[in-house]
Amino acid sequence: MTGSRTKFWHEFIETAPREQLERLQEARLLRMLKQCYSRSPLLGELWSAAGVGLSDIHSLGDFKARAPFMDKDSLRTFRDRHNDPFGGLVRPTDPMLRMVTSTSGTTGDATPLTWSHRSLGETAYQRNYYALGARSGDYILHSTFTFRVGQRQTGPAESGLIPIVIDHTPAEIPRMIEASLRFRPTLFVIMSTPLMIAFEDYFEKTHIDPHDVFSSYKAVIFGGEALGPRQRALAQNWGIELYEMMALGDVSIAIECEMHDGCHPNEDLALIECLDPNGTDPVADGQVGELVVTMLADPLLPLIRFRTDDLMSVNREPCGCGRTQMRYKMMGRKSDQIVVSGRSVLPMNLRMAIEDEVESRAGLFQIIRPHAQMDNLRVRVGHNPEALRTSAAAYSHLLKNKLESLLNVQVSIELVPDAELLKLGPPHKIPRVTKQ
C-alpha cells in the first residue's frame, strides 16, 4: 500500500502502463517456470511429450508460441495413471507444500489446488476490498458458500478488517440482519441469487426495512453465477450496490469496479490469454474466446497454460476506475454450448428471461442435451407452484413463447417444482446442461 489516501492497495501495479506490466509478467513467468518445472511431474511430462524444454523459452513470445496446454483432464488422467491425489502438480514430499485445497467439482471430479504459502486469491481479495472502500478497523460480513478449508482468509486480516463469519444459508438471514444492524459492516461477501430470494421473502414477511439493514455497506459482492438485471434492480431497491465476483480459472478471483464493465484480475500474478475455444490462436478483444491462465506467483500451483473451459470477452483499454489491468466478462462454459438448428445457445442466454418471471425467479433450469446438435431446445424449468399467477400449462406456454422469441429456435418446456431441481445440489451447482 502506497499510502492511506490512495485508492488502490498496490497502486503502482494496478495503474502501471501495459508495457511495464508485460515486462513484469515476462520476468515472473521465466522465474516461475524455473521454480516449478522440476517440482511438477505433470508439467515435465506434458512439456516432454510436446518436445519443449525450459531452454526453448526466453520470452513471453516464446512461451505463447511453444508452451503446451494443460486442462482438468490432464490432472485427472495423471492422477488415475499414477495414483497421485495431487494430479502431478507437485510431489507430496516437497518441503514447500503448505496447503492443499480443491475446486468444488461442479463439472466433474474436484481439481486439487496446491499452495506454498497462501492462495493467490488472498492478494486479490485484499486489493479489491480496499478499492471498494474497506479500511482498517471495518467489519465485513463474510458468508461464502464454499468452506472447503474453513475460514482461512489472511488478506483481509492483513488489511485490518474484522470478519463476521456466518454460514451461507437462508436459515442464517436473521443473524445476518442482526450482525448488519449491530456492527454496521462495510462489505458483504458473498451475496448470491438464492440468498437474495430468501432476503426478499424475509423482508416481505417481516416488513423489516432493507434500507436500514444495508445502510452501512459500501459494497455487496455477488458470486456463484453471472449477475443479472433482476438482481441489480432488486439490490437498487434495497439501497445497495452489487459488485460481481467471478473465478479466474482455478487460480484466483476477480471483482468488478465501480464502472460495472467487467471484472479486474491481477495480471501481475496471473497471465491471461483469450484463445480460440477450438484452437490456439488469440481472439481479438471484445470477441468470445476461452480463458487460458498461467500462474505467475506460486511454483506449488503450476497451472501453466491451463485451459479453463470458460468463455470470456476481454477489454484491455484503461478503465474509468483508474486501473490499467484488463477487465473481462464471462459468457459461460465451452462445454455448455448447444447447437440448435445451427444456432449456438449458452445457458446464460436463457437464464435472464427465466428468472425475470416471479414463478421462476430462483433461476433454476436445465437444458436437456441428448445429442450434440438438436432441432428443438428442451428446457426443464424450476418454479414455485405457490407463485403461479395462471395455470401451469399457461405459464409453460408463456415461457415457451418468450424463449423462442429471444433465441429464434423451437423450444419445449418441462415445468418442475424448484424442490425437485434442488435435490441435485445448491442452486449455483446444479448442472445447467444434462443428457436427460
Strand order of the largest sheet: 4-3-5-6-7-8-9
N- to C-terminal distance:
52 Å
What is the count of β-strands? 20
CATH fold group of the domain at 337-434: GMP Synthetase, Chain A, domain 3
Strand portion: 15-25%
Structural class: alpha/beta
Low-confidence runs:
147-151
The CATH class designation of the domain at 337-434 is Alpha Beta
Calculate Rg over CA atoms: 22 Å
| CATH superfamily annotation of the domain at 337-434 | ANL, C-terminal domain
* Range of helix content: 25-40%
Summarize the biggest pleated sheet: 7 strands, mixed
Q: Please name the CATH architecture of the domain at 337-434.
A: 2-Layer Sandwich
By DSSP (H or I, 4+ residues per run), the number of helices equals 14
Q: What would the principal axes of the Cα set say about the shape?
A: globular
Mean pLDDT: 90
Summarize the structure.
This protein has 436 residues and is of the alpha/beta class. 31% of the residues lie in helices and 23% in strands. It has helices at residues 11-14, 18-36, 41-49, 60-66, 72-82, 120-131, 155-158, 173-183, 193-206, 210-213, 229-238, 347-355, 392-407, 418-422, and strands spanning 99-102, 112-115, 139-142, 162-165, 187-191, 219-222, 242-248, 252-256, 263-264, 270-275, 288-295, 306-315, 327-333, 338-340, 343-345, 365-368, 373-374, 376-383, 410-417, 433-434.
Q: Could you characterize what this model shows?
A:
- The protein is of the alpha/beta class and 436 residues long.
- It has a domain at 337-434: GMP Synthetase, Chain A, domain 3 (2-Layer Sandwich), CATH 3.30.300.30.
- Helix content is 31%, strand content 23%.
- Strands 4-3-5-6-7-8-9 form a seven-stranded mixed sheet, with helices on both faces.
- α12 (347-355) crosses α13.
- The longest helix has 19 residues, at 18-36.
- It starts with 10 loop residues before the first helix and ends with a strand.
